[in-house]
Amino acid sequence: MPLLECVPNVSEGRRPEVVARLARAVVVPGVRLLDVSSDPDHNRTVLTLAGEPEALHHGLLALYQAALGEIDLARHEGVHPRVGAVDVVPFVPLGTTPMAAAVAAAERLGAAVAERFGLAVYLYEQAARRAGRRALASIRRGGFEGLAAKLTDPDWAPDFGPVRVHPAAGVTVVGARFFLIAFNAVLDTPELAVARAVARAVRESGGGLPAVRAMGVWLASRGRAQVSMNLVDFRRTSLVAALERVRREAALRGARVLETELVGLLPEEAAAGALREALGLADLTPARLLERRLAEG
Questions:
Q1: Do the Cβ atoms of 79 and 6 come closer than 8 Å?
Q2: Quick check: helix, strand or coil at residue 276?
Q3: What is the C-alpha separation between 225 and 250, in angstroms, rounded?
Q4: Which of 42, 147, 175, 263 could form a disulfide with 165 if both were Cys (CB 3.0 to 4.6 A apart)?
Q5: How many whole angstroms separate alpha carbon 131 and alpha carbon 142?
Q6: Residue 58 designated active-site
């Protein structure tokens, strides 16, 4: 059977008891909950799941059911863009699983969510049915608050579900994609303008690094500015290359990187590649790692 990773992002990161209930809801037979990463400033939680498509389908429907009872976007605040209580649900093929299996899982879930919960559903990345919807940022532009106006444009009719915004849950975005690494750099400055300038210089759309998306945000809980990045293809830009560029751009503006954060899990291939690049060890492969050799017997 095909094996998929699924990384639902929910718009709640400040109420641990709610996050715990959402995490419990998604764990049904056949679904492994690998990681839960919450952030109060972003007010967002990223769940990392793995399983076969059928089990994930049932677990995710349970997650939507729970989230619709817990999250009201009309009262939600956070620095991260969002359009839904369950904001985005990407499927990622693992091992030899083809991308087609992830696309099929996304389409099936989107149809079921629309029918069961009356939510408008958009498909993105490899599951997108329109070229203008491949990029998540295009769908989320304007945020939850701008959805009502956006839906008056026929070009933004959802792929599934009603042409309306749920008053508490918004809409939801479901798709299929390659591994994404969410990687943040906290700066030693409270100046949001510095983080935004660094993000513009780093991200691909600003002429920066390939396959890097970035934004500058303010972390009220720390009194610091942060460069929040998504590396959508670590084969094109590595963690090391992204961090070096952020450090360089920050230094040009009189700032430095205090610490970095990883949201969710990191593919082994990306971790090994970053270590190989940082240490200059051309022959560093998983076979050279102690725990991997032990696991292989």
A1: no
A2: helix
A3: 11
A4: 147
A5: 19
A6: no
Residue type, 2: P
pLDDT tens-digit series, residues 210-261: 999 999 999 999 999 999 999 999 999 999 999 999 999 999 999 999 999 9
Is residue 4 within 8 A of residue 97, CB to CB? The reply is yes
**Are the C-beta atoms of residues 159 and 113 closer than 8 Å to each other?**
no
CA-nearest of 9, 4, 68 to 36 is 9
The amino acid occupying position 242 is A
For the segment 6-41, what is each residue's pLDDT rounded down to a tens digit?
999 999 999 999 999 999 999 999 999 999 999 999
Which one is catalytic: 42, 57, 80, 166?
Answer: 80
Shared domain check, 238 and 172: no
Collapsing DSSP to helix, strand or coil, 109 comes out as helix
Whether 165 and 209 share a structural domain: no
Q: Is residue 187 domain-shared with residue 147, that is, in the same domain?
A: no
